[in-house]
Amino acid sequence: MFGISMPEITVILIIAIIVLGPEKLPKVLVELAKYFKVIKKTINDAKSSFDQELRIFASPSSKRTPKNIKRVSRKQARACAKSSRLRSSTR
User: Fold this and answer.
1) 8 Å CB contact between 25 and 17
2) How many angstroms separate the first and last alpha carbons of the chain?
3) H or E element: which one contains 46?
4) What is the H or E stretch that residue 18 is in?
5) How far apart are CA 13 and CA 25, in angstroms?
6) Which of 5, 24, 62, 69 has a CB 3.0–4.6 Å from the CB of 20, allowing a cystine?
7) Considering the entire predicted model, what is its pTM?
8) What is the DSSP letter of 61?
9) What gap in Å lies between CA 56 and CA 51, rounded to an integer?
10) What are the angstrom distances between the C-alpha of 6 and each of 3, 12, 32, 52, 88?
11) Ordered mean pLDDT values, 10 residues apiece, the chain (91 residues)
12) Coil, strand, or helix at residue 3?
């Protein structure tokens, strides 16, 4: 579990009990569990939306191929360079 062995976990728990006290420790653990649950949900949502985008990109009905994307990027780069040259020449 995260590269932490059982003796290290025991030491961390003993320090937590000493610092927080037995009254506050359960509340802190519950809050930590909620925090990790939110993080896990956020990561899973990001993974699922990334997978969905990959499926859309890889679908046979999609006409977007890496070659087409490259061309669009070049066109956009040329247009951007052209507009910046126009702006700099009018100054």
Assistant:
1) yes
2) 62
3) helix 6-58
4) helix 6-58
5) 10
6) 24
7) 0.47
8) T
9) 9
10) 10, 10, 20, 39, 65
11) 80 87 87 92 91 78 56 66 65 53
12) coil
